[in-house]
Specification:
With 513 residues, the protein is α+β, with helices and mostly antiparallel strands. Among the domains are: 140-226, no CATH class; 238-310 and 395-504, Alpha-Beta Complex (2-enoyl-CoA Hydratase, Chain A, domain 1). 29% of the residues lie in helices and 26% in strands. Strands 1, 4, 5, 16, 17, 21 and 22 form a 7-stranded antiparallel beta sheet that branches. It has a 6-stranded mixed beta sheet with strand order 12-13-14-19-20-23, with helices on both faces. The longest helix is centred in the N-terminal third of the chain and has 18 residues, at 52-69. It is globular, with a radius of gyration of 24 Å.
């Protein structure tokens, strides 16, 4: 998940507070609210059952949480969310005589709350769960493939490989181009026939199989389509492989463990190696970044890596903060940040656990003190005023990013930054990413009686949410070249022309290298 971001200007909650002290913001709204204490948690500890009265208390607090802490609350209202009806529907459900009022399953509560919210909140980061139930509040797009491949010739598509006897070679595919996925592992101008299926977040099983009808020679034929396995090995925190022409880097996460973790030092060293690789690999023809299974974390590391690869020098944090990207037609750093008593208390607790309280406290101290006497919900629009452009690109090669259905949040921020920096020399390979992009700065909450635990965004990135290209919530970035894991190595060889990868990246279909 996307956690709070520490340094880089694109998505930094902390720097927002720094800049707000320098008047680099505009207050969009201030609303007086009731003050409530919050039991800030870093690790959730859900319970299995609660009483009806505890549900009443927790749903009341959930309403308060949505109103005062959720950056997508106004969007949810615009879609028709009515918190009074929301509360009535839930309490009506659990006042039914089929439930033991002294022992109601929190898993059932989670299911009911999800069904009440799913039509109004479209946010892959917004997560709620109980002991055994888990939901993100957004549908997802999954690609199901057939074993039929077609070649494009003069604007038409002809079968070159098929596992269905009725669909023979040289048959013309006469269906929709939306069912064609460019698939270089099978050769030049080859497309794999498939289908995009929208699923609810509760359908997290990795395997889906369907039979659909597709048109060949203007006749509908039944075609079996299915998903393919995601990678099993995501244990490599950071990996680096090289050939003469290609550098390969893999990261299983952008998340820094908390300060008490035994892996903290290892993670810090790994991220340092990742950043330093930017200049070490600058002379390569291809730099591959494998983000399969990487659900996100801190944007800082990729922002620094990509900017340093672009300039061929390791940028300092101060240089990074004041640098604009080339050819900015839109200020993509426009951020609406929410502040309220629960937000600042939870954020302060988060940074205590991360060992960074001294860094963040000066920036939230004013809100923390003021909210005790005059509790408010404040929406601040942070405006990036940096003016020093990053300059000309000093990397002549290709940047290739590998993604899958579980590449999310900061992994997707890596994609958008790479696309903006390297343009047509940046290629996406694999599956579409998860689609966690419009909201950020996620904070953990637990309702007082532990009936529900939640991860709730406190920022919305307006120009992403309102952009036709970046409005990918639940859809994800679509690859330039599609590939399942089993064909990934041959796809990379086809794109790079580097046959040495077959040896260096042997086994990449199983996991990160």
């Amino acid at each position: 998940m996307k956690k709070l971001i520490i340094l880089f200007l694109l998505l930094s909650f902390c720097l927002f507070y720094t800049f707000s002290q320098q008047d680099q913001y505009e207050i969009i709204s201030e609303q007086k609210i009731e003050y409530r204490d919050v039991n800030s948690v870093y690790y959730h500890s859900p319970t299995s059952v609660v009483s009806y009265q505890q549900i009443v208390e927790d749903i009341d607090n959930l309403k308060y949480l949505l109103k005062t802490c959720y950056a997508g609350y106004e969007d949810a209202l615009a879609r028709g969310l009515d918190l009074e009806k929301f509360e009535q529907n839930i309490l009506s459900e659990f006042s039914n005589s089929i439930y033991d009022r002294n022992s109601i399953s929190t898993d059932k509560i989670c299911d009911v709350v999800y069904n009440e919210l799913k039509n109004f909140i479209i946010d892959s980061h917004f997560t709620l769960y109980s002991l055994n139930s888990h939901y993100s509040l957004c549908t997802r797009n999954r690609i199901l493939y057939s074993n039929i491949y077609v070649r494009e010739k003069n604007g038409k598509y002809f079968v070159v490989e098929s596992d269905i006897p009725e669909i023979k070679k040289k048959s013309e595919f006469t269906g929709s181009k939306e069912n064609l996925f460019l698939y270089p592992a099978k050769g030049k101008n080859i497309f794999r026939v498939g289908f995009t299926k929208t699923i609810e977040s509760s359908a997290e099983n990795d395997y889906i199989e369907n039979e659909i009808e597709l048109s060949f020679n203007n006749e509908n034929k039944k075609v079996l389509i299915k998903t393919y396995d995601s990678i099993k090995n995501t244990k490599i925190f950071f990996g680096k492989q090289e050939t003469k022409d290609t550098g390969y880097l893999s990261l299983s996460t952008f998340d820094l463990p908390d300060v008490k973790s035994n892996f903290r030092k290892y993670a810090e060293r790994s991220f340092e190696k990742y950043i330093n690789s930017s200049v070490e690999l600058n002379n390569k023809k291809n730099v591959i970044i494998d983000l399969r299974g990487n659900s996100g974390g801190n944007n800082y590391y990729s922002n620094k890596f990509l900017s340093s690869l672009y300039t061929n020098k390791i940028l300092s944090d101060s240089e990074l903060q004041k640098t604009k990207l080339p050819k900015d037609e839109v200020n993509y750093t426009e951020v609406y940040n929410y502040s309220s008593p629960w937000i600042v208390a939870t954020m302060n607790n988060y940074f205590l656990q991360m060992g960074m309280a001294d860094f963040i406290f000066p920036y939230i101290q004013s809100d923390m003190e003021n909210f005790k006497t005059e509790p408010k919900k404040i929406i601040r629009k942070w405006i990036d005023t940096s003016s020093e452009y990053i300059g000309e690109c000093n990397f002549a090669g290709k940047v290739i990013i590998i993604t899958d259905r579980n590449s999310a949040s900061s992994s997707e921020d890596t994609i958008q930054l790479a696309k903006r920096l390297f343009g047509k020399n940046c290629y996406l390979v694999g599956e579409n990413s998860k689609g966690c992009f419009s909201y950020g700065n996620i904070l953990p909450y637990q309702l007082p009686n532990k009936s529900l635990c939640l991860y709730v965004p406190s920022s919305i990135f307006m120009n992403y949410a309102n952009s036709e290209y970046y409005n990918i919530e639940g859809i994800g970035f679509t690859p330039d070249y599609w590939s399942t894991n089993e064909d990934l190595l041959e796809t990379l060889v086809a794109i790079t022309g580097d046959k040495s990868l077959r040896k260096v990246l042997h086994g990449i279909e199983v996991g990160l290298k």
